[in-house]
Amino acid sequence: MFSRLIVRYASKKRFSLPSVNFKYAEKDVQNEEEKRLPPVYPIEEERHERTGVKSRFKKEKSNGKSNEESSGISASRNLIGEKKVNNNKIRKNVKFEGKYKSFSTAVKRKTGVGFEPEGELIFGIHPVFHALQAQRRKFNHLYYKAGLEDKNVKIQEILKLAGDNHVQAEAVKLSQLTKIIGEDRVHQGICCDVSPLPFEKLEVDSSNINENEESCKLWLYMDRIQDPMNFGAILRSAYFMGVDKVITSKENSCRLTGIVSKASAGAAEMLPVYQADDLRGLLQVLVNQEWNLLCAAPESPSSIPLNTYMPNGNTVVAVGNEGYGISPELRDLFKTTIAIQPGRVLRTGMDSLNVSVATAVILHDITSKISAINTKNSAKG
């Protein structure tokens, strides 16, 4: 019994706890939590504004300002407090900058030169040059790196074209140009604010299918190509290989953006890209006109090797989505499937080419064969 008392006394002395008034415990804990919570401000501007008001209030108080002026400052502080409460209301009217600009997608991009794009940006020497040549866009403003016109002949040609077409050009610093375009863009010291480039409309009745029957034509159909780099690279190959018409799907297809124009080295500015409201109807008309409808796919027992295939007339080559290929709604129209044969035994996961590379290989093979047919037909005539 005596030993227990000693232990209890020692425990009480070593692990003594402060007394708690349970009547006010909940309120005290709540106040303590409020003290520990940092103030939350919706944007950086407001935090600076609030800090500025505090410092001004302290300064004016130390200078012996009147009570009326101090109360006015307090009122302004209260207004700032109201802004914090009505977060959702003020965000609509605030222009976010820096890392906060992503709060509102409706706010236009601000840059160091006070530039807000009216349309979209194309960048790079070839895209801007060919866009000025083709005149398929409306030009709002052109920016280039100051001093570059003295070193680069192509920039001089671009500035001359801009002057001939009454496009306003402005020389800016490299840092300002990077702010306009973005750090991850290879702009080559020039960019242009332009209107979006639209797709051309292709109707079944006005597609001029039977135009110039003496020579065989080659059309390219891109089904749901979504990567702008692939889209642009395919357009560049199509332009280089002499494809007569490029068509793309209306759903799940990439737009003709500045990235597409850059990836195509400006070919997107010169080569019209068509979309059809009734694509299946158009393809059915081509089938009835005895066109060859070819579908590119990985090698399989049902596919024909590309090097052994020989077209016998007008041809449409279809390349499909990077992951899924040609849409199931159109597969029954493409009776012939062609495949590029590999040069070695391939491992799993490396058994196909990038869609833009595969398209370039296929177009090179088909255009050379169609060119041979046209040469043969013209010799007969």
Protein model, in words:
The chain has 381 residues and is of the alpha/beta class. Among the domains are: 75 residues, 2-Layer Sandwich (60s Ribosomal Protein L30, Chain: A); 181 residues, Alpha/beta knot, CATH 3.40.1280. An 8-stranded parallel sheet has the order 5-8-7-6-11-9-12-10, with helices on both faces. The chain has a 4-stranded mixed sheet with strand order 1-4-2-3.
CATH fold-level topology of the domain at 200-380: Alpha/beta knot
Named at the architecture level, the CATH assignment of the domain at 200-380 is 3-Layer(aba) Sandwich
Number of strands: 12
Mean pLDDT: 77
Summarize the model shown.
The chain is α/β, with parallel strands linked by helices. The chain is built from 14 helices and twelve strands.
Salient structural properties:
eight-stranded parallel β-sheet, 14 helices, four-stranded mixed β-sheet, alpha/beta, elongated, Alpha/beta knot, 60s Ribosomal Protein L30, Chain: A, 381 residues
Write the layout of secondary structure elements.
Layout: H1 2-14, H2 25-36, H3 44-62, H4 67-85, H5 87-91, E1 120-123, H6 125-134, E2 139-145, H7 153-164, E3 169-172, H8 174-181, E4 190-194, E5 200-201, E6 218-222, H9 228-241, E7 245-248, H10 258-263, H11 267-270, E8 273-275, H12 279-288, E9 292-296, E10 304-305, E11 315-319, H13 328-331, E12 336-339, H14 355-380
Parallel strand pairs: 2-3, 5-8, 6-7, 6-11, 7-8, 9-11, 9-12, 10-12
Antiparallel strand pairs: 1-4, 2-4
